[in-house]
Structure formats: structure tokens, C-alpha cells
Design goal:
Elements lengths: L1 E10 L32 H24 L37 E7 L3 E8 L2 E8 L5 E3 L7 E4 L5 E4 L4 E4 L1 E8 L2 E10 L2 E2 L1 H7 L6 E4 L9 H9 L6 H6 L2 H8 L6 E5 L11 E6 L7 H5 L4 E2 L9 E4 L1 E4 L2 E2 L14 E5 L6 E3 L1 H8 L6 E3 L4 E4 L8 E5 L2 E4 L6 E6 L2 E6 L1 E3 L9 E3 L1 H4 L2 E6 L2 E2 L5 E3 L2 E6 L4 H16 L8 H7 L9 H10 L4 H11 L1 H36 L21 H4 L4
Parallel strand pairs: 1-2, 4-12, 5-10, 19-28, 20-27
Antiparallel strand pairs: 1-14, 2-3, 3-4, 3-9, 5-12, 6-9, 7-8, 8-11, 9-10, 13-14, 13-29, 15-32, 16-19, 17-18, 17-23, 20-28, 21-22, 22-26, 23-24, 25-26, 29-32, 30-31
Helix pairs in contact: 1-13
């Protein structure tokens, strides 16, 4: 039975990570957040441009047809560029504990309260990976040689996360983790990663992500690809593509079908703090507490995400009004994703404003997309109620210390969930999870994949009590600030991070939802929308001119027809036309290489 000790690096590492330089804390403010799949944007500007384009095409076609000769079309059909599998690119759409009774301990580390890391041995080489309850696959971009058993022919996977992506073929290798051995573990053998991973993740020594969500095609790029490759062999994709946790459960029938995650908090916001991952058993001293806690079923068990209803949130004992955009959500509740792979917490604009607007001298920065608060301000008493139990948020998890140039400032650890999402309203990432021990039950499914017993979650508070936690915050915050530059003024912060709207007004908060989006395409569309009236007006004027020209052209054509018919009679004489000799068949040398 595995009890994995975690350090505060995003899952703890067995040893301190070597860093060539100390990254700015602001670099780690929004380390990784869930990114939704690309959507079609129904911007008024785009709609108007589309309508005008169609109209322009009709007008141009009509005029051209009236004055031009009809020429036979030669059409070239170019085969689409595809991956070798022929299925194309896929994008997916995320305190120290005691040892386990059997002594099987693997270290999990924590860096900057942003990354919780585990060490695994894959194909004979030890690599450090981020532990992620919001995804399923094991994805690697290793700088160590891996003894690979097999590379799946014609396989190609692109797994995309909030701040980065990995792509490459599916491979299998022997895996050792937390005292368990998987003889053949499928993983994405990354051949390329995006710039963010190169600049931020890799310098920290992190070589991949280990997803521990429920195995499902909806969250696993590996299983999705294998399903396509082995479509005629039902069940083979699931057999080959199981994730690490599923393989551990499969090979250890007597093991409890659950994990318990505890995320630690650093003492100074810079160093490491411990945490733990227990597989199939409870951390020592917590078994009775979990036994007395009711499980909360995953809201969408078939979607294989750890989403649960949030019953209530309260700020200084004042209950906030919650609402959900998710179909089927209980009235007056919000649906939240519990995710170790998201460093912060993301909520609605209204909830975020209620949490921080009452702090004296706090203001919303549209340049940063978060609230800026005095670093030693009195912290509000905030609770999140799930499964009928209220969980207190430690004040240290409400704000972050950040530096810029020669000054220090503090910002909210919660931000706006600024993109449309059909699966959840909030993301309760590490900021929330440091305040609870989280039990993930993986459910039970029959051979057809039908749910027999729903996946579920239990939460046990890690708080020492409101008074004790607040005293801890007061002492540690002042101690931590002593090692940083002086606190900056509002003017300094706004100069370093210019406002994109009317600064501290509540109107700017509504604008912030768009600026918080992790999708730069959405931000581009939103900027265009601001010019919608001007663009639509110009397009309307162009449309009027085009219609006028069309009318003039038609009138001229009619008049010319009448003049020619009345003035003279011309005998028709065919004019010989020499047609060009047929050309050879078109061949696209570039694309043909991808379709052989």
C-alpha cells in the first residue's frame, strides 16, 4: 500500500530541485490552469464581417458574370495534411504526513506552493513529474534515456493543458512508483513541448505530468488514440492505455480503490513544504475522521472529472449567493473541479469581488487580473461548504507575495474563471486543497464501462482552528515580508502593470473576466468587439455603395442591350478558339509526403 510523502513543489520531490537562478515569484502566480477546447466565437464583429463577405461575394459574382466570358474551371483538390495515424491532431481540451503502516514511502515535493511533484522510475531512469488530479495520462519529456518496451505504431497524441502542451507517440516501459511496479506502463513519449514548458517547467527539473484522474477517453489522449487504432478490437485500448493509478489498482486486487492527497504549505513562500499521496489507505490518524465524513459523488461521474457541488461560500459569516451555468446543477449551488494541477483557485466575478472588496485599500487590477491588497491587511474569514461541511481557508492561502522591479506587493490567490466552461463553474486548485485532506474514490465500472458505483470525494479539514490559523498568518506574513523589498504603492503597481480599464471601479471587475481568459484568441476577439459599432457602420456603408454599383451596372447592361438590338443586325459567325493542351495531373509534393 502506497503512502507517498509530498513536498511543496507541486508534488514533492525526493531532493531539493536544483535551480540555476531564483525565478521571480510573479512567474509562478498562475502556473497552470485548465484550458477549455477552442470554441467558435460569435463575436458581433465576426458576424458582421461574415455577412458583409457573403454579400460582397454575391455582388462581385453578379457583376463579374455580367461582363466576363465564361471560362471552364480547373479545380485542384489538395489532400489534408494529417498525422501518420490518419486521424489528425487531437487537443484535450487540469503539512507533513506520517508514514504508511507498511513503510512504503515515496517523496512528493512542493516548490513555491505551486508545483507538487513526485519521483518515478520509468524504463530504468528516475524522472520528476507533477501530480495532477485534473488529467489522466502520464506524459514525459525526459532528458534521461528510457528503456522502452514498445512504441505503438502510427500513434500520435497531443495533450494540452492550461499553460502548455506535450506531443509525441505512445510508448510503454516498466514503471516503479511508491513501492509498486507496473511492467508495461503506457505514456506519451514527448518529442516536442511548447515554449512555456521550456522556459518554466523544464528549468525546475520537472520532466512531465502524472495524471491520476479516473481513466476515460474523455480525459485521456492516450486512450482516445488507442481506441481509434484498435477500433476492431474492443477493450484493447483500455488494457494497453491504463494510467498509473488504474494499473496499480488492477495489479493489487486487495488494495483499496482510492487515494488520499495532502498538499503542504511552505514556511516562507519560497522553500519546500511536505505533503503526501496515499494509495489504498488513509494517512495515520485520519481513518476515523474519514469514516465519519460522508462521500460526495462526482457531479458528472461519466466525465471522469473530480467535480462536486459547492453548497455555499461565506465571507465573514455572510453567505454568498451561488449560481451555476451547468446543466442539471442543484439550485443555489456551483460545480467545482478539485484539481492539484491548478496552482490557484478560480471562481466567478461576483464571488471574487465579495471575497476581496471588503478589505481596506484593496483594488482590482485589470492589468494583472487579480485583486491587489495590502500585504499585512486583516484577512477575511472565508469558508467553502461541500457535502454539508464548511472548510476554512487559511489566510496565507488567500493572498500571494509578489515582487516587481524594486518593490513588493500582494495579490489575491483566487482569480476569475474567465472562460466559458460547460463542465464546472469553479476550479478549487492548490490554494483550496492545502486546507483539506482529499479522498478520491475511483468508483466501480462493469466490463461495458457502465458505472456500478460512482466516483466520489471526501474532505477532512487540515485547519488548526480560525484563531490559531490567523495568528500563524500574522506572524509568518511579517516574517516573510522582512526578506523582500519594501511594499509598493498603488501608483507603482499601476505603472508596472498598466490598467486596461477604469482602474479600481467595479466596472473594471466585469471587464476582468475576459482578461483572465487563458485563451489569447478569446482576448483578441474581445478587443475586436470593442470596435463593433464602428466596424459594423463601415461595413454597412460599403454594402450600400456595393448595392448602388450593382444597380448602376445592371442599368448599363440593360441599356446597352437595347441599343445593340435596335441599331443594327449582326450575323453570328463562330470564332475558332484554340484550347490549351491538357496539363499533367497536379501533384502536391509537400502534402503527398504526409499521405503515403
Amino acid at each position: 500500500m502506497l503512502y507517498t510523502s509530498i513536498t511543496n513543489s507541486r508534488l514533492a520531490v525526493l531532493r531539493p530541485l536544483e535551480r540555476p537562478h531564483r525565478p521571480s515569484q510573479s512567474m509562478f502566480q498562475d502556473m497552470r490552469v485548465y484550458k477549455p477546447a477552442l470554441r467558435m466565437h460569435k463575436s458581433p464583429v465576426f458576424v458582421a464581417m461574415f455577412a458583409a463577405s457573403v454579400t460582397l461575394g454575391i455582388v462581385a459574382g453578379a457583376v463579374t458574370g455580367a461582363v466576363a466570358s465564361r471560362i471552364p474551371d480547373r479545380t485542384r483538390v489538395l489532400a489534408p495534411r494529417s498525422s501518420s495515424s490518419g486521424t489528425g491532431l487531437k487537443t484535450w481540451s487540469i503539512a507533513s504526513a506520517s508514514s504508511a503502516s507498511d513503510g512504503s514511502i515515496d517523496s512528493l515535493s512542493n516548490t513555491f506552493d505551486n508545483w507538487y511533484l513526485a519521483n518515478i522510475t520509468i524504463g530504468g531512469s528516475e524522472v520528476t513529474v507533477q501530480l495532477d488530479t485534473g488529467s489522466t495520462d502520464l506524459v514525459l519529456f525526459s532528458d534521461q534515456p528510457i528503456d522502452i518496451i514498445n512504441v505503438i505504431p502510427n500513434s500520435y497524441v497531443n495533450d494540452t493543458y492550461g499553460t502548455g502542451w506535450f506531443d509525441g507517440p505512445i510508448a510503454t516501459a516498466k514503471l516503479e512508483f511508491g513501492g509498486y511496479t507496473v511492467e508495461s506502463q503506457a505514456f506519451l513519449n514527448g518529442t516536442s513541448v511548447n515554449e512555456w514548458n521550456i522556459e518554466v517547467m523544464l528549468p525546475l527539473g520537472i520532466r512531465g505530468i502524472m495524471g491520476i484522474a479516473v481513466d476515460s477517453e474523455s480525459t485521456s489522449g492516450i486512450i482516445y488514440e488507442l481506441d481509434n487504432l484498435y477500433e476492431s478490437q474492443p477493450g484493447k485500448a483500455e488494457e494497453i492505455g491504463r494510467n498509473v493509478i488504474a494499473n496499480v489498482f488492477e495489479q493489487n486486487a486487495g488494495l483499496g480503490n482510492f487515494t488520499v492527497v495532502s498538499l503542504g504549505r511552505t514556511d516562507d513562500g519560497e522553500g519546500t513544504g511536505e505533503g503526501s499521496l496515499a494509495i489504498g489507505e488513509y494517512p495515520e490518524g485520519l481513518e476515523n475522521q474519514f469514516a465519519q465524513t460522508s462521500a460526495v459523488d462526482a457531479f458528472t461521474p461519466g466525465a471522469a472529472r473530480w467535480t462536486v457541488p459547492v453548497d455555499a461560500m461565506a465571507v465573514n459569516s455572510k453567505t454568498l449567493a451561488l449560481e451555476s451555468a451547468i446543466q442539471g446543477a442543484p439550485s443555489g449551488k456551483a460545480i467545482a473541479l478539485i484539481d492539484t494541477g491548478t496552482s490557484k483557485a478560480m471562481v466567478s466575478q461576483a464571488v471574487l469581488s465579495a471575497m476581496y472588496s471588503g478589505i481596506p485599500d484593496a483594488w482590482y487590477s485589470t492589468g494583472l487580473g487579480v485583486w491587489v491588497v495590502p500585504c499585512t491587511a486583516d484577512a477575511p474569514n472565508i469558508t467553502v461548504t461541500i457535502g454539508g461541511r464548511a472548510y476554512y481557508i487559511h489566510p496565507l492561502d488567500l493572498t500571494d507575495i509578489r515582487t516587481a522591479q524594486d518593490f513588493t506587493f500582494c495579490t489575491s490567490s483566487f482569480s476569475i474563471l474567465g472562460f466559458d466552461q460547460s463542465a464546472f463553474d469553479f476550479i478549487l486548485g492548490d490554494t483550496f486543497m492545502r486546507n483539506v485532506y482529499t479522498y478520491f474514490y475511483y468508483g466501480d465500472f462493469d466490463e461495458t464501462g457502465t458505472i456500478v458505483d460512482s466516483p466520489s470525494i471526501k474532505l477532512v479539514t487540515s485547519s488548526h482552528g480560525v484563531d490559531a490559523d490567523y495568528a500563524d498568518y500574522s506572524i509568518r506574513r511579517r516574517q516573510n515580508l522582512a526578506s523582500f523589498p519594501p511594499e509598493g504603492t498603488k501608483a507603482q503597481i499601476q505603472q508596472a502593470f498598466p490598467q486596461t480599464g477604469p482602474g479600481s471601479s467595479e466596472a473594471s471587475v466585469s471587464d476582468a473576466a475576459a482578461s483572465q481568459s487563458v485563451d489569447p484568441y478569446q482576448a483578441f476577439v474581445d478587443k475586436l468587439d470593442g470596435f463593433a459599432p464602428v466596424v459594423i457602420g463601415l461595413l454597412g456603408a460599403i454594402l450600400v455603395v456595393l448595392l448602388g454599383l450593382l444597380g448602376v451596372g445592371v442599368a448599363i447592361c440593360i441599356r446597352r442591350g437595347r441599343v445593340v438590338g435596335a441599331g443594327r443586325s449582326v450575323n453570328y459567325t463562330p470564332v475558332p478558339i484554340r484550347f490549351k493542351e491538357p496539363e499533367g495531373e497536379y501533384k502536391d509534393d509537400v502534402n503527398v509526403r504526409y499521405n503515403q
